[in-house]
């Protein structure tokens, strides 16, 4: 008997000697009972070992890079770059000399983290956009680099500023966006323009923790917004000899986009034309706020963002069209690789679409993924994989790391990764399954069933994947998004986008009219669906949530999507935990103050009591959604015009649901906790406000730092550096809790808040609530 026979006999003897399976308690390997802590721990360890297998580190590398970029941008001060560079060097050494797999993978993830920090520092240094420090009226002279028209017909110019005068700005923004309200002949792109303008800095966060539009403007290169005071003057002729080929190419591309947009709106006037211009060249200003709001509340706003859906439909339609044309000639199909020729043509069409659409982050992501997929087709490899998503994410993070904090980047990659993971599970081969049996499932009914089932799954998965980011940034989710997408997406897929592609391709021949008419009919139907869904329920306002809840939800989503073992259960548990945390009652602030100090609100049950009958819509709507307060309680006029601030405060104690105001003098109100608030416009009442109120607010930029009575003083000078404020007066201590929207003035996109134009220097204020 040889050794192998003895082993077999030994195993047989062990099996025969073992007790019957029904006579013993079920145990896991090494004696651990299923469901015990030891068993769960060992299962978790096994799952982690499998997750550390080949290829998984590649998927987590862009996550590490995104964390690195986000960390660099959210820190209150710019990190020292030398330690970051040293850390990257150490990681490179580990990757080069270590022979331990776990150490090499850990070094790779850390290297991605610090590399993204270096990329973020480089991008910020390279841009160095000058942001205007305060509102000013001045004369500018510059060159128009872009032009668009809003739904009311008002022209908006993006202008590269050559100089300013009367007064001359010491820190002039390089590029500004100005609305021209007066009727005038439109200024051509590349032409010169001058005139008297009112400029203001980009808006900061409307609420602490909400989206910072100043950050967005900084990385888009826009230093100020405003409007012309009168008609723009077109007598100025800019010097074109100093333009490089890159700048001239950019102007040519802008002219092309403008011509396409104008032609589309000429054929399709009204809402459909604005919608079509948004889908072709990303010109969204022509759409009315009502239509945009309907698309957002119905869950169809993603149609506006040119992303993977649009890129795939355009390139995919062209790809299939080319293959269909080749199929008419069987000899050619047998002689040449027509599939590869179609892939090259689809790549050219996708690149054209990227150029004329404005190349937003979601469009860049879609284009990069499409390029990878088409290259895979050319190389006869599998095209759509999670690895391609990872490569696209890494490329964008290295090139534009600032995009990591934007909703476009986050929602685009979340939806794409979730869909690929879902369809990978859907298409996973299962033992004992085969093709569908004949019958009704083999008829066109099956095609329709599978199509709408796939559409429903796509909408549901994409909606769930993007929900944490939608709640974090916009504080609401679409209640009937699935219904809206099931009704609208077939129209977008089979009518709108193919017709739009043909319209753009036929535009040089002057044959775009009928494709545009077909496209417009489809868009009218989409708008009707969006408005119907909005009217039956629309969006559910969730309100502002803690950043920690968002982080837990994102961690759960990443684990659930990127894992390939039972570790997905951990991701699902984190998602459920985040969802449960959102239902916990939150403590809302009692007082809100806008960053300019001109708008103040008392937060009461169900509403916001403000000092203005018509508050700025841009800020006030963010307050309403952020705090789940739909009702607006307008201010009351002080009876009889009595300007006695103390008496007004006494009267306000009985009306905590309204503020009381004396025109152009002061406004007073009392919060639900009894805190007395005074907003002073006429500074002669500042002393009385300090004596009578607990919190005093003035928009005036005065040097006074505190009330000697002990009341909390908030001035325009302080708000300029702190941004908007949220105040909780119901605290255990005597002092209210205050959160500011701007953490510091030490970052490149907040430094303008500390500039003093009088002596051309920077200063820093430390208010009493920050001490």
UniProtKB/TrEMBL annotation:
GO terms for cellular component: plasma membrane. Residues 1-34 are annotated as: Disordered. Residues 279-565 form the ComEC/Rec2-related protein domain. The chain crosses the membrane at residues 57-75, 81-98, 303-329, 341-363, 384-403, 409-426, 447-471, 477-507, 514-533, 545-562, 569-588. Residues 80-228 form the DUF4131 domain. The keyword Transmembrane helix applies. The keyword Cytoplasm does not apply. Pfam families: Competence, DUF4131. InterPro entries: ComEC_N, Competence_DNA_uptake, DUF4131. It is a multi-pass membrane protein. Keywords: Cell membrane, Membrane, Transmembrane, Transmembrane helix. Residues 1-14, 20-32 have a biased composition (Basic and acidic residues). It comes from the Bacteria. It is found in: Cell membrane. This is ComEC/Rec2 family competence protein.
